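hey so i finally got around to running the thing on that chain from the lab meeting. sorry it took forever, my laptop kept dying and i had to restart like 3 times. anyway pasting the input first so we r on the same page abt which one it is
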Amino acid sequence: MKKILLALLIGTATLGTLSSCTKEYYEMVPSISVIYTREAKDWNTKDPQSAYLDLNVPELTNYYVKQGVVNIAISFDGEKTYNALPATIDGISYNYDYATQSVRIYAQDPIFDGFPVDVPAKAVFKISLTDADWVQ
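ok and heres what got predicted. didnt touch it at all, straight out
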């Protein structure tokens, strides 16, 4: 009798556990990407160890600044590969900041030891803007 009750208990627990699983579907998060190609002449030099590049990004609305997600990647080989920023590539530290409709990319000597920064002859920037839910 104990074996039958134990078998029923295990069977009921298994059935209850398996039947309580539900499959959840998530909608795809809306995202857009914009591409900018810039040459060495487009960079502004602050000093020999630092340069910056300003990009006008009309798609970068106040919504993305306050709530969304902004990711930037750089390509030096005609978009065959990308490196996500911030990153140090070939001894140059690349990072960025952004505001509504504007992105500034920095190229700097990573340790500021007097190493001159040679900005890339040509670079492609991919700016990805993704919707996000605000949680407080």
